[in-house]
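Recall that a protein's primary structure is simply its ordered list of amino acids. Everything else, from secondary elements to tertiary packing, is in principle encoded there. The following example makes that idea concrete.
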Amino acid sequence: MSDETQLAARADVDHLAAVLERRRSELAGANAVIGGATVVHAVTEHVWVGVRVPAVVCGAATDPLRLRATTAPISCRRCTRRLTGSSAGVSDGQLTLD
Protein backbone atom coordinates (compact mmCIF):
# COMPACT_ATOMS: atom_id res chain seq x y z
CA MET A 1 0.00 0.00 0.00
CA SER A 2 1.44 3.37 -0.97
CA ASP A 3 1.94 6.21 1.50
CA GLU A 4 -0.73 8.21 -0.33
CA THR A 5 -3.27 5.38 -0.02
CA GLN A 6 -2.47 4.94 3.66
CA LEU A 7 -2.93 8.67 4.29
CA ALA A 8 -6.28 8.65 2.48
CA ALA A 9 -7.46 5.63 4.46
CA ARG A 10 -6.38 7.25 7.73
CA ALA A 11 -8.27 10.43 6.82
CA ASP A 12 -11.43 8.38 6.19
CA VAL A 13 -11.09 6.62 9.55
CA ASP A 14 -10.48 9.91 11.37
CA HIS A 15 -13.53 11.46 9.69
CA LEU A 16 -15.78 8.54 10.68
CA ALA A 17 -14.48 8.63 14.26
CA ALA A 18 -15.23 12.38 14.44
CA VAL A 19 -18.76 11.89 13.09
CA LEU A 20 -19.45 9.12 15.61
CA GLU A 21 -18.05 11.20 18.47
CA ARG A 22 -20.29 14.11 17.48
CA ARG A 23 -23.33 11.80 17.39
CA ARG A 24 -22.39 10.42 20.83
CA SER A 25 -22.22 13.98 22.19
CA GLU A 26 -25.62 14.85 20.65
CA LEU A 27 -27.23 11.84 22.35
CA ALA A 28 -25.53 12.21 25.74
CA GLY A 29 -28.19 12.31 28.45
CA ALA A 30 -31.04 11.97 25.95
CA ASN A 31 -33.35 9.25 24.73
CA ALA A 32 -33.56 8.49 21.01
CA VAL A 33 -35.88 7.64 18.16
CA ILE A 34 -34.70 5.61 15.19
CA GLY A 35 -35.05 7.49 11.93
CA GLY A 36 -38.55 8.95 11.65
CA ALA A 37 -40.17 6.47 14.05
CA THR A 38 -42.18 7.44 17.12
CA VAL A 39 -40.97 4.77 19.57
CA VAL A 40 -38.57 6.30 22.10
CA HIS A 41 -35.58 4.18 23.13
CA ALA A 42 -33.09 4.40 25.99
CA VAL A 43 -29.53 5.20 24.90
CA THR A 44 -26.33 3.50 25.98
CA GLU A 45 -22.84 3.28 24.51
CA HIS A 46 -20.84 0.51 22.89
CA VAL A 47 -17.25 0.35 21.72
CA TRP A 48 -16.93 -0.32 18.00
CA VAL A 49 -13.40 -0.71 16.58
CA GLY A 50 -12.03 1.33 19.45
CA VAL A 51 -14.55 4.17 19.17
CA ARG A 52 -17.35 4.74 21.69
CA VAL A 53 -20.65 4.97 19.80
CA PRO A 54 -24.24 5.54 20.93
CA ALA A 55 -26.66 2.62 20.77
CA VAL A 56 -30.21 1.87 21.86
CA VAL A 57 -30.49 -0.40 24.90
CA CYS A 58 -32.80 -2.88 23.16
CA GLY A 59 -30.54 -3.30 20.11
CA ALA A 60 -33.29 -2.37 17.62
CA ALA A 61 -30.82 -0.32 15.56
CA THR A 62 -27.15 -0.96 14.93
CA ASP A 63 -26.44 2.24 12.99
CA PRO A 64 -25.76 5.14 15.37
CA LEU A 65 -26.26 7.61 12.52
CA ARG A 66 -29.99 6.71 12.39
CA LEU A 67 -30.55 7.78 16.02
CA ARG A 68 -32.18 11.15 16.76
CA ALA A 69 -32.12 12.68 20.24
CA THR A 70 -35.38 13.35 22.07
CA THR A 71 -36.43 14.40 25.56
CA ALA A 72 -39.62 12.31 25.32
CA PRO A 73 -40.00 9.48 27.85
CA ILE A 74 -38.97 5.94 26.87
CA SER A 75 -41.82 4.04 25.21
CA CYS A 76 -39.91 0.97 24.03
CA ARG A 77 -41.02 -2.01 26.10
CA ARG A 78 -37.81 -3.92 25.47
CA CYS A 79 -35.61 -0.99 26.59
CA THR A 80 -37.74 -0.58 29.71
CA ARG A 81 -37.50 -4.27 30.59
CA ARG A 82 -33.74 -4.26 30.10
CA LEU A 83 -33.31 -1.14 32.23
CA THR A 84 -35.50 -2.39 35.08
CA GLY A 85 -34.87 -6.12 34.82
CA SER A 86 -38.59 -6.70 35.15
CA SER A 87 -41.77 -6.72 33.09
CA ALA A 88 -43.73 -5.24 35.99
CA GLY A 89 -44.97 -1.76 35.19
CA VAL A 90 -43.99 -1.94 31.51
CA SER A 91 -46.63 -0.28 29.37
CA ASP A 92 -48.70 -2.35 26.96
CA GLY A 93 -48.78 0.31 24.25
CA GLN A 94 -45.80 -0.53 22.04
CA LEU A 95 -45.66 -4.08 20.73
CA THR A 96 -43.18 -3.94 17.86
CA LEU A 97 -39.77 -2.38 17.57
CA ASP A 98 -39.00 0.00 14.77
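The mean pLDDT is 85. The beta strands are 31-34, 43-48, 51-56, 67-70.
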